[in-house]
Amino acid sequence: MPLPSAIAPTTARGNRAVVLEAGGASRLADLPRPVPGRGEILLALRCCGLCGTDLWKLANGGALAGSVLGHEVVGTVVEVGPGVLGFRAGDRVAAPHHVACGECDACRRGEEPLCPDFRENQLSPGGFSDLIRVGERAVRLAAYGLPDHLSDEAAVFLEPGACVLRGIRRSGLGERIGRGVPARAAILGAGSMGLLHLLLLKALWPALRVAVVDPLPERCRRALDLGADADSADTADLADVVFDTAGGAAALAAALDLTRPGGTTVLFAHAAAGERAGLDLNPFFKAERRLLGTYSSGLAEQRDVFRLLVTGRLDPAPLVTHRLPLSRFGEAVTLARERRALKVLLIPDAAPGNAD
After folding, report:
1. Are residues 115 and 189 part of one domain?
2. Does residue 352 have a pLDDT over 60?
3. Which of 20, 118, 232, 294 has its CA 20 to 30 A from that of 99?
4. By residue range, what is the domain housing residue 341?
């Protein structure tokens, strides 16, 4: 079932949000209540996923003091700006934070994450706040009203699921399967994003053999429960495509070792700021391996993941292990960093049943 509806904060209280301070600390503070402009909508937060990118920004200084993180958002419309079509107060909505223009050279090449407009955050402030203003471009092109049967816990994976789908499509795995050529895939890392890769691969190709590799036995067991065909203890066969969801030089080396000659390694994770990888180049090029970086998603992937969610072919809700109020943001970060949580959702303090 969907999470309880958030209670919209009063104008007097403003907008309660998790605001970052210098050094990576945070505090719950009252900000001005956002006002939706033309083509914009205002959402009352239902839930926002804590993402690996959020953790990376906190650890590597990628977020400025005074900013609000959070971009995997599901909310309830509480106000619409002038000219908005298709949304009204009371609608449940999932909205991404990055939306390409769809018209520039990068977009026409299918490289939407490289679009100059793409980096403009369409959520103001970020998702870890009671109220979030969604920009016009996101409302017009990429916000989705949610049907009653689709839970908040599943819908919150729309944006990360689209990022995963883009990497899968760019890997060439689909072309190989479409030609009837046998294929095997492996995933390095069984955190929430690694397991989301597993769920999407199985949603697209149920018969595809997928191995999941992770140093934590409990995460390997969870991967097997979610449909993996092998885990870290049974990865003798090299894969045609390996998805590195762990990040860093050591993980990349391990992913390359899991890739067969002629295969592809997809780099889908941040490394520590400034970290460099060293490759033994001769074996790499003589084996005709490919290394592919993939970042974020485009409108097509967002649309297609939404369809998978609505039809039930993709159900990532079992990846959610914790729900914590915004006031316990620091605890959520600690749980994720120490790998004691798989996926943490932050929800408003005003919502009942707001802690697991």
Report:
1. no
2. no
3. 20
4. 15-157+316-347
Give the total number of structural domains in the chain: 2
21, 129: one domain: yes
Residues 34 and 127 in one domain: yes
**What confidence score (pLDDT) does residue 7 get?**
33
Mind listing the pLDDT tens digit for each residue in 144-190? 999 999 999 999 999 999 999 999 999 999 999 999 999 999 999 99
Whether residues 255 and 341 share a domain: the answer is no
Please check the confidence at residue 355 and state whether its pLDDT lies above 60: no
pLDDT tens-place string over residues 93-134: 999 999 999 899 999 999 999 999 998 999 999 999 999 999
- Region of residue 210 (left: phi > 0; alpha: psi -120 to 50; beta: else): beta
197 domain residue, yes or no: yes
CA 324 from chain centre, in angstroms, equals 18
Both tokens of 4, joined, read 């309880």
* In the predicted structure, residue 356 carries a pLDDT above the cut 80: no
Structural domain includes residue 37: yes
